[in-house]
UniProtKB/TrEMBL annotation:
<dbReference type="Pfam" id="PF00702">
    <property type="entry name" value="Hydrolase"/>
</dbReference>
<protein>
    <submittedName>
        <fullName>HAD family phosphatase</fullName>
    </submittedName>
</protein>
<dbReference type="InterPro" id="IPR023198">
    <property type="entry name" value="PGP-like_dom2"/>
</dbReference>
<dbReference type="InterPro" id="IPR006439">
    <property type="entry name" value="HAD-SF_hydro_IA"/>
</dbReference>
<dbReference type="InterPro" id="IPR023214">
    <property type="entry name" value="HAD_sf"/>
</dbReference>
<dbReference type="InterPro" id="IPR036412">
    <property type="entry name" value="HAD-like_sf"/>
</dbReference>
């Protein structure tokens, strides 16, 4: 049901705008390195790989070198690493972009994503191939990316920073994310939320807002 107080909508990226399959990346690195996928997952978790890259602790070169180090595979090329890392990024349905355009006529819309620079470069390629739109910044008023902010969802500080930088009020803002922890983080600072759960998509969740 539509909340008449809402003036701003913040979207997560993965599995909200863009379809993703996170385990595919570990499978790709397993195939590259000749290891089991379960071993790759353990290595990534023990080394806190996602957090380091997605909060900007590691830059692109540092990330690639870290991958070579933790997989003990010094001959991995930059291209091979990027391709494996990006393999979790799937398709971006054009109808979701059309929804964003429609919502933009009435609401201020923003993006807030836990992500990395390598992923964003590829996402923009997928976006352009799918819709002809060159980059995410052409869709949203402000694009908030974890690796640029030095913070990740569900840390409440990232939501507070978004509200402050955008100049918007929590009670007038709706946030959509597929991760329940991220939803709870936003709730803690007073933001209205929708927990996006497949197979339902934002087309259904926001149909009342797009009228």
């Amino acid at each position: 049901m539509k909340n008449p107080q809402i003036k701003n909508i913040i979207f997560d990226l993965g599995d909200v705008i863009l379809n993703i399959d996170v385990p595919v990346a570990s499978k790709s690195f397993a195939e590259l390195s000749g290891r089991e996928q379960s071993e790759i997952l353990t290595i990534f978790k023990e080394n806190d790989l996602f957090r380091q890259f997605e909060t900007g602790t590691l830059d692109e070169a540092g990330f690639r070198n870290f991958i070579r180090h933790i997989l003990d595979f010094s001959d991995l090329s930059d291209e091979a690493i990027d391709t494996a890392w990006n393999s979790l990024l799937l398709d971006l349905p054009p109808e979701r972009v059309e929804l964003l355009k429609k919502l933009k006529e009435t609401y201020r819309i923003f993006l807030l994503s836990n992500t990395s620079s390598i992923h964003i470069t590829q996402v923009n390629k997928i976006l352009e191939a799918s819709t002809g739109i060159e980059k995410l910044e052409d869709l949203f008023e402000i694009v908030f990316l974890s690796y640029e902010m030095g913070l990740m969802k569900p840390d409440t500080r990232i939501y507070e920073k978004v509200l402050e930088q955008a100049g918007i009020k929590a009670e007038e803002t709706l946030f959509l994310d597929d991760n329940f922890d991220n939803i709870q983080g936003a709730n803690q600072v007073g933001i209205n939320t929708i927990h996006v759960q497949k197979p339902t998509t934002i087309l259904e969740y926001l149909k009342d807002y797009a009228v």
